[in-house]
Every structure is written in C-alpha cells, then in structure tokens.
Amino acid sequence: MNSTINLFAPTTVGTLALKNRIVMAPMTRARNFDGIPNDNNALYYQQRSGAGLIITEGTAISNTAMGVLHIPGLYTAKQVEGWKKVTSAVHQKGAKIFTQLWHVGRVSHVSNQPNGQAPVGASDIQAENSFAWGYDENGKETFVKCSKPRALTTEEVKEVVQDFAKAAKNAIEAGFDGVELHGANGYLIEQFLNPMINNRTDEYGGTIQNRSRFLLEAIDACIAEIGASKVAIRLTPYGGMHELPHYDEIDSTYQYLAEELYKRGIAFIHLMDQQSRGSYALPDGFLSRFRTWYKGVIILAGGMNRQKSQELIDTNLIDLAGFGEDFIANPDLVERLKNNWPMTPPNRALHYGLMLEGYIDWKTYEEEQLVNG
Ligand SMILES: Cc1cc2nc3c(=O)[nH]c(=O)nc-3n(C[C@H](O)[C@H](O)[C@H](O)COP(=O)(O)O)c2cc1C
C-alpha cells in the first residue's frame, strides 16, 4: 500500500480544486413539479455541500429525455434561472457542483413523453420488465412498465447529440462547474453501447467504434461548447440495470472508450458499481485494468464506506470516492465519516416524490444529539 492520503484534506485532482475527496453521487429525488429547480432544491444541495464535489440528480436534456415525473431539466431559460439558486447555494459553502445530463432513451413510458408518443431508443427493443415513473391508465402517478420504444433515425441521433451540447452550455450559464453525461445504468448512451440492445445498421451500430460513436459525439459536442475540463461522464461497465445483458466485448468496449476519453482530456470518468443497487458488481481486477487504460481522474461510487474508499485511493485505483444513498439521510455525511459517527438509515419510501418529508428535514449528527439529549 502507498502512503495514506487524507480523504478529508483539500486537493486538486486534474483541474478540479476540491475541499476533500468525497463526492455526492447523482440521485434522482423527483422534487420538481414543473421541472424548474427551486429554493428547496437549493437548500437540499447546500445541506450536503460538505462534499468536495456534488453531482446533481439526473437532469433532462430535452422533453423526450424523461422517464420519471418531476425531475428537473436544463433546456429552458426558466430551468437555467432555477439552477442558479442551487449552484450559488453550493458555492457559498465551498463545494463544486456538476450536473448530470440525462436522456433515459427506452426507460420511459408514453405518459412521460410529449403528446403521449413512444419513447425513443437506440433500437425498438423494449425493456419489458423495467419501470418508469409515470401515469397509469387512470391518471394515477405510479410505477408503469416501460413502453415499446421507437428507434431514433440517424438524423435524430445527431439532434440528441446537440441536445447534450445545448444543455452543457445552459449548465455553465446556470453556474455549474461542469457536466457529467449519464452514460450508465441502462439509459440512452448505454443502450447504444450494448450490442444486445443496439441492433442498428447505420454508423451508430455494429462495431465497438460505431456503438461508441454516439457517446463520443455527445462528449465532443459538449467539449466544443464548454471545454474538456468541464465535461465528464458516468459509466457502468458490466452493469445490468434496466435489462442490459452482458456481451463478449465489454472489456474491449470500455478500453476503447477509456483511451478515447483520455485523449480528450475530460474532467473525470465516474464509474459506478451497481451491486448496492441490486445489480452486478464490477468484476475483480476491473479497476486495475481500467486504471491502465485511463490515466485521468477516476471516481468510483457504489457501496463505499470510509475504509473501502481510503484503501482504493491509497492503492491508486481511484482518485475520488462517490457516496449515494448515505447522503440522503445524512446531510453531514463527510463529518460523520471523518469522526466515525453513526449513519442514520435511509427511508426508501421517501426517496422519490413531491413531498418535503424525507428531503430537507434530515438532521446532522450534532442536531440529532440535541434532539435525543
Ligand atoms: C434515490 C436514488 C436515486 C438515484 N438516482 C440516480 C441518478 O439520477 N443518476 C445516477 O447516475 N445514479 C443514480 N443513483 C445511483 C447513485 O448515484 C449511486 O451510484 C448508487 O446509489 C450507489 O452508491 P451507494 O451504494 O453509495 O448508494 C440513485 C441512487 C438512489 C439511492
């Protein structure tokens, strides 16, 4: 093991100057009735700005990008204004904040789409056993089975690439430090990567290079708008969420992507291990292989704790540690990790929905002591 790095000390990784190595992972909370970030969202993120870097919940890049009701967007002027509240609240506390740019592709339902149209995907293959959060046939808000998608035409793929770039430009206008493209968890970008879902015969299907083209074009379009040091991506190699089957060329696909992304000098790659979300773990040895392919900044999220993140950073497998669910009920997560204070368990029934309960009412450890004492 190398010498111990202080997780809680200020550091610069790549071009990011951070107050510590803890990252708040992106988490959809569905607290926006009109898609426009508001004061409650600003308070929620400010409460969690003990993190060196916050990555916001998945944020829609267009009106066809959604598969969950009440998520925020970043494609209208009002949404840009709303996000300014969030970015300034977080910056006041000395944290950095990226937004996660999201297109769900086929993981959506007709009730999430404009005029009730079919969701768009890399292909027309349906995620038959996956769920979106939309309206059922009685107009009730609930989990609904994903609808059959329509394959994007070649021209439309290029339009979605531009939607990513426009959202990236809006993000900078809204005060974000950068953007993370959502290339993980079975959503649109990963639907293109996976040859069991992507059956296209145009330049976006077939070889590894072709299946990676949409992702790299979206990255390049964002770089052209806001510069490489402000662009990042989240990836889930070997992930299975939303019915993405494993395929033969997973390692070679991610090696190609890692090398291409490194050439571009992006801010970071954010890997997620899906085991803590009920899907596959990253296979043994993958992180060491990935480190040889990608020499830039690596974040890993999924099942982290203080000891595990310390070990992974000290052995130089990752640079920053991402924490997800723990941040919901522990707004002062960094202080709890630093002081080895106990964690408040999450209440999963309150993860999504418009209610304020379970959103901005979680207490810090010290506040809990006052209440309990
Ligand atoms: C309520 C909730 C919402 C989430 N929403 C997103 C999301 O919008 N985008 C994303 O990439 N991951 C999302 N995730 C996954 C987290 O970013 C994180 O990777 C995952 O929870 C594993 O980390 P953990 O074990 O520390 O929770 C979500 C997780 C939770 C618990």
From TrEMBL:
User: Which parts of the sequence belong to the NADH:flavin oxidoreductase/NADH oxidase N-terminal domain?
Assistant: 6-341
Protein name per Swiss-Prot or TrEMBL:
Alkene reductase
Species of the source: Flectobacillus rivi
**One Pfam family this chain carries?**
Oxidored_FMN
On the tree of life, the source organism's domain of life is Bacteria
